[in-house]
Amino acid sequence: MIHLPARTIVRWRWPIVVAWVALTAALAPLGGRLHERLHVGGENLSHSESTEAEDLIRNRFDSPYAAFAAVAIRHPTLTLRSHRYSAYVDSITAALQRLPFVLQTLNWRNAEDEAFKSRDGRITFVLIGLSADSSATADTPLLRAAVADVQRRFGSDFDTYLTGDPAFDYDIRTIAADDSRLMEQRLIPLTVLLLLVAFSALVAALAPIAVGFIAITISLGLVSIAATIVPMSIFVLNLTTMIGLGVGIDYSLLVVTRFREELDYTPNRLDAAAETIRTASRTVITSGGTVMIGFVALMIVPLQETRSIGLAGLFVVATSIALSVTFLPAILAILGRHVDQPEGLSRRLRRLRFGHGWNRYARAIARHPWRAVAISGALILALALPALWLRIGLPVVNWFPTDTDSGRGLAVLQDMGHGGTLRPLKVVLQMTDGSPVLDVDRLRGLRALADSMRANPRVAQVRGIVDLRPGIPLWEYVELYGDTARARQRMPDVFRTFVSHDGTATMFDVVLRDSVSLDGSLDAVREVRRIAVHGLPMLAHARMLIGGFSASNLDFRNKVLGLFPLLVVLVLGVTGLMLAGVFRSVLVPIKAVVMNTLSVSAAFGLTVVVFQWGIGGSLFGLVGPTQAIFVISPVLVFAIVFGLSMDYEVFLLSRVKEEFDETHDNDEATVNGLTATAGTITNAALIMILVFGAFAFARVMAVQMISFGLAVAVLLDATLIRVAMVPGVMHLAGRLNWWPGYRRKRGGDYRRGSGEISSPPAPSP
User: Residue 702: what are its φ and ψ, rounded to 5°?
Assistant: First the structure.
């Protein structure tokens, strides 16, 4: 068992409190601008085709452009034929071109390309090529400021939006930070209200709130430091806030509840605090350890998103545990009976307290355990059933936040049929025999490849060295590239973009139709990859690689799904072994693993119903079914929920074990343990559901999916699983729950597996 220096913590209570406050004050400024250090897109996957394609483009091609952005413009009545509209577009183009990190700007006029405007002439866009040293965080506000300055001079009747990868990056960082602040502000009063009802005392209610927010502040500061060393995903911002509030308050709830119980038996506040550390704090550490297992498993998966969330999760859970077993007991030792202040409010709030019927409920479960197991099990299995139709991919709607400047700009581009322009597939063709791609024979093969890709119904346009303009016959390209040096001199931008500097590789931009969803774009990547390039004329020695946004997401999906079984085995195995060691039982860990798997499966099922099928999705701001679930969502929900659900298992079984050690009566121990902890589990679950449920209304789709899954998993776990199915199974299993930790001896005594003997006292002579 875990033994903490209880007396030392109580004796040094004031220095401990001061040390935690000082650490919070030191780290608070670091977390304030954390969103600027986080990565939105994730890093390239090692040993994947998309990463190899991106590396080849970066190392072998001389294109100076690091990224592209676009200014989408629409007017309700004017067309580009009007002088005012044309002057507005030219002014924006000139203003953007003056920025030092903008290498080139193109519009319908200077590009001499009708594709830059819609058929009715009311929509157009300006394409912006950004330099390699540009930064989405620093430069996006400058781009928008330049556009806003022109818009002020011409009037506000032009709908003008900056979009593209840099704008998406900036907007997602901004709304993730805004959502975290907004949710914290909304959650504070609601959480205080719940804790007031749970504790019937204001001071007792504020202590867990303090622990939760100190845990968040310290953890965000630690994540900010880590972000300067290793890449950290933008997902950690919302998840750290969610888990910090949920876990920090959860553990504090258990500690404060136990401290108030101890005060009823031990009037001395210092003794009560020490006994709380010896009992509840051990439960907190065991429970927190099970949560941390999931985060450690995430770090083993070699992906930026999973590793950064795993690291952030370890920070926030470890901090919450440390606060709950040191800072909080120190505070309680200082407060003593004042934890129930103010007395007048406490007397009124006690009338609202609920939970006096838990003993009757627990005894009802004991009388009919089969009924409890059958009803709760049937409900859980019914909710888990839709998980069989879980489809992993990119959501077809709501993926990009629609209430941002970049989201509105993308919608305008889609209205004119050019939504896929900014994120084409990058098809790279490399001649492995070192032959030049501009040879006459190779040009025929390249045209055949381009025609094969263009024949795909998902493809809107193919751009490359043999597809510079629509309708140009192959013989003109043969003539154009006959003198390669002269052609390079005449068209330097074309060569830098589409031909490698050694002339042995070329690249195509494959633009998908706007009717193709994000999930459909993954199918497009698969279909292009299936093209047998070796069977095309004169391309027998060619090697084709596909990169870009959609290809990276497909490779990411495949990588995560391939590693998911390893993650499951790690979490299940280590959790089971840990519980077996703590409770000295074989059945307890098996039962816990099975029960947690059921709650996670039910969470997956409800996620399919609400998001993938769209049933009730409008409550969360969805405009329709997503038809697919982002791959990171079920992985994170499994890893996080498995640990959080085990929290309640440890809360319940620790108390049952205490009772069983004293009485050796499994049924009575289960009844007493459930009676003592059901209220705490319910209150803790309500807070978790409140915290996670609030983030289910966030504006980033991935955060919504993860938060919803966490909220419903905790709800089901704390109701159907932990206070119905688990005690039912405990009653049915009887003393087998504690085998081999306890074994019956002859004469009816019990023996501890550790060698201690517990027997009734001998009768007096």
Answer: -60, -40
For 194, what's the count of Cα atoms within 13 Å in the CB-facing half-sphere? 22
> Which of 350-357's residues contact partners 24+ apart within 8 Å by CB, and which partners?
350/200, 352/197, 352/200, 353/197, 353/198, 353/200, 354/197, 354/679, 355/678, 355/679, 355/682
The dihedral region occupied by 654, where left means phi > 0, alpha psi between -120 and 50, and beta the remainder, is: alpha
The radius of gyration of the chain's CA atoms, rounded to the nearest angstrom, is 31
pLDDT tens for each residue of 664-705: 899 999 999 898 888 888 888 888 899 899 999 988 888 899
Pairing outcome for strands 123-130 and 159-164: unpaired
Query: Tell me: the pLDDT tens digits for 137-195?
Result: 788 999 999 999 999 998 888 999 999 888 988 898 888 888 888 887 888 888 888 88
Kindly state the tokens that stand for 429.
Answer: 């063709």
Over the chain, what is the mean pLDDT? 86
Q: How far apart are CA 499 and CA 760, in angstroms?
A: 88
Strand partners, 130: 67, 102
pLDDT 10s digits, 517-536: 888 899 999 999 999 888 77
Phi then psi for residue 74, to 5 deg, are: -145, 140
Alpha-carbon distance values, 349 to 197, 234, 252, 332 (Å): 6, 41, 20, 21
The tokens for 728 are 């039912």
Q: Is the omega angle on the peptide bond into residue 761 within 30 degrees of 0, that is, cis?
A: no
C-alpha to C-alpha distance for 462 and 163, rounded to whole angstroms: 22
Say yes or no to pLDDT of 345 above 60. yes
CA distance 255 to 654: 14
Structure tokens at 407: 């989201």
Residue 466 has which token pair? 């043999």
Number of Cα atoms under 13 Å in the Cβ half of residue 483: 5
What separation, in Å, do the N-terminal and C-terminal C-alpha atoms of the chain show? 37
CA distance 662 to 689: 34
Q: Tell which phi-psi region holds residue 421, choosing left (phi > 0), alpha (psi between -120 and 50) or beta.
A: alpha
The C-alpha atoms of residue 158 and residue 123 are separated, in whole angstroms, by: 10
